[in-house]
Amino acid sequence: MRIDIITVLPELLKSPFEASILKRSIEKGLVEVHFHNLRDYTDKSYNQIDDYQFGGGAGMVMMIEPIDKCITELKSQRNYDEVIYMTPDGSTLNQRMANSLSLVENIIILCGHYKGVDQRVRDTLITKEISIGDYVLSGGELGAAVLCDAIIRLIPGVLNNETSALTDTFQDDLLAPPVYTRPAEYKGLKVPEVLLNGNFPKIEKWREDQAYERTKQLRPDLLDND
Fold first, then answer.
1. Which domains does the chain have, with CATH numbers?
2. How many helices (H) and strands (E) in the chain?
């Protein structure tokens, strides 16, 4: 997979990809992540990429020209499955969306900034708009990092145990069941006996029941999706 991220602040994005799972996935050659500074695609003085709103109003707007130049250049080099815009009013990122995007080959992610982008960008260049929650950040960079993490960890070979991602919270619209490790008893707190007896069909049934009960208690809205 190749991910191209268009941003005004590439330095804000780089650190998440220089540690842990994301770093290893890049080193293994399982994913390529490239950052493109939008200011490299403007002819305006002072590398300007934003301007005042037509009709007045507070906040600057990212101009269409540098965004179009950058996306056009990238598309001239390869085909892209999705051109994603990170925006608070996009579709809320969920596990199903991450699963689907982990199967594609190439994506572009445009990070919004200021008051957002010229609407013509959204109308003509973007194929998918994604939000990571009902709140506003200073820019789309942190959202892009969250999206990339959610996608990349699902790529085969990224996690040491490839079945791990399949049992995560939100897979099958359920929260994950409780997990325990050694010691089996600590200060009188005991691990459920079913997990210690080696009866794997019973363990699996216990986990399924716990996942359902936790979801029913903590996130009943997920069960309404069925």
1. 2-152 (3.40.1280.10), 169-223 (1.10.1270.20)
2. 8, 9
